[in-house]
Amino acid sequence: MNQVDQRPQYDEIDLGDLLVGLWDGKWIIIGCTLLGLIFGLAYILVPNHPEKASIELFPVSTIEQNTYAPLNRTEFISVTRGRLMNDFVQELQLRDVIVEAAREVLVDPDGTNPDRSAVGFANAVKLVAPEPEEGARPNWQMSFTVPSEEAGIAVMTEIVKAGTARVQRNLVQLFEQQLQFSQQSRQLQLEDLREDRQNAIADYDQRVNERLAFLEEQAALARSQDLAQSALLEGNTFGRNATVTQIQADVPYYFAGYIAIEKEIEMMRSRENKENFVAQLAEIDRQIRELEQDRSIERARVAFEATPLAGDNFRAINFDPRDMQFASTARKSLILAGAIMFGGFLGLMVLIMRNALRNRKAA
């Protein structure tokens, strides 16, 4: 029974033998560790890892902004470097230009669901707002992940191109709309003033007709009383409106005498240019002349044509591909540490298996 208990158990590991085996097989462990390190370095150095691209969005220069100064002095539109930047960022936030650029550069049109891939890329783009108060981030920042630096530069260039085109198109449309609204407003004002002019003349004609009817009636009364002249009148002087001199309010008008009354009737009917007797026409005609002689729309078009908005050199932001920064998404230190640990573990397992096989053969 004791002989059975004293038989060596070959399936157990002797610590002393293990330490001796580790020392004897140290080169196996070192070799496997180096092999793992080599594989880790090779994985890191192979240029096939996604790159994180980041760029700071700079506004156009003050000199370029000054080219819009003549246009900004008009009442139709104002273009500043801040507005151009805000309009461009709004286009980025809508994601349409990013989807368009991704579809053009990154996505394989023959692949599976290219539209979903383009939308997925656009949704992954990060826009970070500036924090000018702290001074650490004065401008908008944009970041995204791309397969390579070349792809990052290409897609960002396409994004800027598409976004700039949309900003330019929107500003041109806004300018044209403002001109159209101003032109329509001017036409409506002219129509109103011309209608006011006609109404003023019509009101004058109505007053004249009422006055003539009154004078004719008074002249007939004077003739019926055989009142050619009246001693109540201080004189037969006529004012600019060719009306008889004022008399006492409680004295009937026909007491002026039919000679004076009929003279007034004759003068009123003989007026050749009745517009000279309508007081409101002078102000109305002045306003009409101002509107007809207004050249603000034509001058605004001339100022617009002198800006980059009217040409092919328009820029919404100051973009230079050299401002882009790239960083590999691969965690190099973690990959190297994992490769070394895996290599060492693999070497240890190989050594343990080798020693176990040797012990079985020796037994």
TrEMBL record:
Residues 274-301 form a coiled coil. One of its GO terms (cellular component) is plasma membrane. It is a multi-pass membrane protein. It comes from the Bacteria. Residues 11-47 form the Polysaccharide chain length determinant N-terminal domain. One of its GO terms (molecular function) is protein tyrosine kinase activity. SUPFAM superfamilies: Bacterial polysaccharide co-polymerase-like. It is found in: Cell membrane. Keywords: Cell membrane, Coiled coil, Membrane, Transmembrane, Transmembrane helix. Its main location: membrane. The chain crosses the membrane at residues 27-46, 334-353. This is LPS O-antigen subunit length determinant protein (WzzB/FepE family).
